[in-house]
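Posting for a labmate who doesn't have an account.
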Amino acid sequence: MIAVESWKKMIYKMFDLLYIPESLEKIKGRVVLHVSDTPSSFYSCLNKLVTFLDPLAIIHTGDLVDEIKLGLLPNRLALYSKKLRLLARILEGEKKRKVCIVTGNHDNKDVVEQVFHTSQIVNWSGSFDVCGLKLNVSHDFQGLPSMEGDLNLFGHNEFVPQSDSNKTYLNGLMSIHCIVPDNGDIYTLPYPRFVDQNRLLKRKCGL
């Protein structure tokens, strides 16, 4: 079984696809999913992951259509809105799940509020409880609330502080996080390589 998994992982990596380990089958319906800084080219992969995991909640820590840098090119608002509607259908779907959207530096809060109908919208940073977890969220690390929480979720750039005994930090730009509230387990999945390329070299230029 391990050999088969290794081959599948290698093939998925070769073809630049999102690999979902079969071992995640055991956490279906029990997980909080965290992603960040998603270009629209990743939406089909995200849809596959959401369908597979059937998460209790989804947290997105900003830059929802990451190839469109509204902070630099505000004239692309119409295209941003169109692509955002695709993301809303994936995250909210027909399931009654908790969805939290944190707006980033290349998001438009007014459009986000128009497009996402059942989600909690957080403007840059905030704190709340999800499935028994106390979460601090922000688009970037610097914006995280100082209050204590079980987990601190953010994105924006490559910065990853060292977690200590009191605080755990999860950067959703660096990897996808699958958090199991009932036992505290955290599973990480790498983004396909094309995601970084379609973020317009975000991790190299720090946009």
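Reply:
Got it, the structure tokens are right above this. The mean pLDDT is 90.
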